[in-house]
Amino acid sequence: MDLVAAIADPTNITLSLFLTGATAEGAATDDRGIIEHGKLPNRTFGRRVTEADLVRAIDGYRTPVFGTKHDRQGTVCYVCGPPRMTDEIVGFLSKQEGMSEERVLCEKWW
């Protein structure tokens, strides 16, 4: 699979952002106000990502036409976050029908 070619066509990319922890106790600022309609891309959510969100994402936010195994064969996922979260999400995504470990990329921080 040519990941560079996939990225070159912006119609092949969907970005969803799930922002959490913006109001941790003792935080210097409260960032909840930026997660409002029209202030960030329309696939930005002020909540934790769920397994249902992940399944919708790997299906391209549409009903599979030829079955999940076929329709997901070009799907690439990128997961970024704290180690425990990324381990859980990468494990879940890698086990879904039509997905493989080499197409679930990860960056851990903290």
UniProtKB/TrEMBL annotation:
The keyword Oxidoreductase applies. One of its GO terms (cellular component) is mitochondrion. GO terms for molecular function: oxidoreductase activity. Coiled coil: none annotated. InterPro entries: FNR_nucleotide-bd, Oxidoreductase_NAD-binding. Keywords: NAD, Oxidoreductase. The keyword Cell membrane does not apply. This is Oxidoreductase FAD/NAD(P)-binding domain-containing protein. It comes from Friedmanniomyces endolithicus. The lineage of its organism: Eukaryota, Fungi, Dikarya, Ascomycota, Pezizomycotina.
